[in-house]
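User: Hello, can you help with two protein structures?

Assistant: Certainly.
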Amino acid sequence: MKSAAILLISVMATSTLVTACSSGSSNQPNASGAPGLSGSAKPDLKPVELTMVFPVDSEQKDLKAVQEKINKITQEKINATVKLVQITKGAWAQQTTLMLSGNEKMDLIVSGRGTYEQQVAKGNYLELDDYIAKYGQGVQKVLDDLDPAYLKAPRINGKTYGITSIRDFANDFGISMRKDLVDKYKIDTKAIRSLDDLDAVFKVIKENEPDVIPVTKFANSILGSPFVGGMLDPLGDGLGVLPAHDNGMKVVNWVETPEYAKLLDTTRGWYLAGYVAKDAATSNEIWQNLMKAGKVFSTLHHMSPFSEAANSLTVGKDLVEVRLLPAVATTTNITSYMWSIPRNAQNPERSMMLLNLMYTDKDFINLLDWGIEGQHYVKKSDNVIDFPQGVNASNSGYYPSENWLFGNMFLSYLFNGENPDRNKKLTEFIKNSKKSKALGFIYNPEPVKTEIAALKNVTNQYALALETGTVDPAKVLPEYIKQMKAAGVDKVIAEKQKQLDAWAAANK
């Protein structure tokens, strides 16, 4: 998740090292025109090139050099070369929509990111169950060792279209602040217990640091997604949610709730006080870059036991996190970042073999995560790394800071300064997290896809301005609700309620 942060879950990774080297494919089309599965494994794999598409915060200039190193591994293990395709997160939705709807060659792609159900409904991803059984045994074992629910959670109508990366499967929620300014103005972080306590903090920054914006948006909102994940289960697309992760299993329109209105009022107050940038609704600059440049003080978002250290590394400044909402696990936590095989993959069997390496091969994982030893990192010990002399997060040629994305974090090196007990701490964090009553529920949007498309347009028109405080919610929120009604939000909620009721009855 982005989610997300540099996290590990304690596991005996060596027990999961299952190679796909002995698996093979005849790659013969079946009657439907889709590649068929071979009946038996063969050692004589034909050479193929596999295209792997993933999001990045910013383009990595040494990507090709890392790709060359990766290909030495993949050629040996599965006789395949890999073409790494990076797409910045700001351009991800538009570019991947075009790629998936066209005939562009792709063999693995990051899925989730709020569009999983829609892409499955469009037929853009292949069913994976047979491929997992034959060529993804390592994937299945490492996820089953955690909990079989993590492999099952993305299923739609009993079929798997995405495999989650191994990371934090729960989040708590709060504010990240620059430690240098917290220390400079002696801000008492223990006194921050709610959103109301932040006004005084932002006022200090506004009055003493005129060139620093007190709070910036995370993604496209100040107090919306992902922060409100601590207040509701989005049930997939957020068009119809479960407040307090229960609500008697009654689905509601979040935009119509008093809780949403109060968040908007708070944000508007911050905006009018000058705590939010005037161009917050139009600026495309991500919070990490603004924090690196020293232009902002804080942002509100989802967290984990190690997000403070991870985000500090990413922005090159020490951050302080304060939790405001408790930890919770939802289906969205699991499906927010996954890997899928696109329908136009030329060899799905080999795609699964490549994905299997992402969960079983430590050398492969750490090239994706950290780049080339000696150039992008140096080893401090067998499993701990750091930047080489003169290299940091800002000037490194390869530092995607996404080891939560690339398959199996169990195999990823620890970065110097991270808590050596993070495995144990994260396990406790997940175990003690609140679980949504709808954990495991996957919503099929197909019956109301026309209404959803219309509602997305309405949301794009209103949400960003409202959730950055740019417009007056007293005037604009009623219009937003009216337009959602006109676009069919009640029909969408009724359909989601119907599916949720059926799921709940089947999972008693």
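That covers the first. Now for the second protein you mentioned:
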Amino acid sequence: MNEPLVVRDAAMRPVADLLRGPAPTCGPDTTVAEAARLMTTGRARYVLVSLPAGALGILTEGDLRRRVLGVGRGGDVPVAQVMTAPALTIAASTLGADALLVMLAHGVRRLPVVSATGEPLGVVEDTDLLANATRGGFLLRGEIARAEDTDALVAACARIPSLTLGLWRARVAALDVSAILSVVAEAAVRRAVELVGDETRSPAAWFGLGSIARREAVPSSDVDSAWSGDETVDTATTHATAVHALLDRCGLHADDKGASAARPRFARPTGRWHTAIEGWLADPFADQALVMLGMLVDSRIAYGDPALDLAGHTAQMLRSRPEVLRLLLREAVEEKARIPARRRIVARRPEPVDVKVHGLSPVVNIARWAGTAAGLASESTPTRLRVAVERGLLAADDGRVLGETFDVLTQIRLRHQCEQLERGQTPTDVVDPQLLGPLQRSLLSNAVREIAGVQRTLAYAGPPA
């Protein structure tokens, strides 16, 4: 059987360590002929363009082909007329895995890397980060983004299960498979919104919620959604209903518990969202307040106006109410404290185990609290745990245990669902331990027990002072 690859190489190194040297740089008035010469002498496929106020543009070989040679322009054209500006940049401390997700989400192959003061240090390319097995995610994401009509989108999305199986068979790390699957699914959501026709008026935003927003999707993951904007709720829900109908054709099904922009509860004008957040903070025991606040902290804009971000706003409001944050922690350690850690999964006739409910969700909930308290929003569970340890909100041992168990359980979950896909079955989170090998059974048992131990520690002692 395939075993997941757990060593992630460049993915776990800061991009500053991956740079091949300084990037060739020019000014906006430089001609494209001179820019091409700089690329040649610098042995690079790009040149950075210094702009006022510290901004950067970028001109690539592809830009020269499409925007200069392809349209018959001469070499005396200034780069300002054909460059991409402002260029999307990343910080030097960004991990390679996160840089790869940024590239995949935005459909770019190169990212200028800047220092803490905004100075350009170089450019990281997809070839610095990608193994051959992961290129399929880029290709499929691009095909989805370019789908000309609904039938083309459905056809492209039909290959998502094959992409997932291909990544798994190639021994790509489970966390990376989940992240790539999440970005591809988000691209499908974005294109579906566009193809249905955005009947709302700007500003408006369509949000992904849950595992896709956290970049932790697996084949069984639903498409949770929300909407915010200035139009009427009826208009928004009608549009969302059509979007979800198209996504259903794509094999990306809406949340069966109702977390959907097609419902008025998840489709509100921006001001009403803010009012609702204030109400949930004022009375966290009413109207499923903690559940709603947690979903919003996990939200990510899939389409629309970035200024309407709800995750950052909700996280900031939560940090101003430490008593509500403590309730999130209490729910994380008490609501799931009865995880069947003593379930006899190594016995002769063990009971089935829901890997999500009995293992992954408790880690996600603890990480959500810790990440929010640390100032994060819309981040993955591993990132939240890492930052929480760095800022003293989780003990180093607790953060390590939770991170390792999250990785192990994600491996078990993904393997289980990929094997179901191979057999033509609908993927589920319920694992029969008798179908696992001895090592996998032991890992599952130990992971659940370790999570329960951290929960007890946090319940009795609380977070580090």
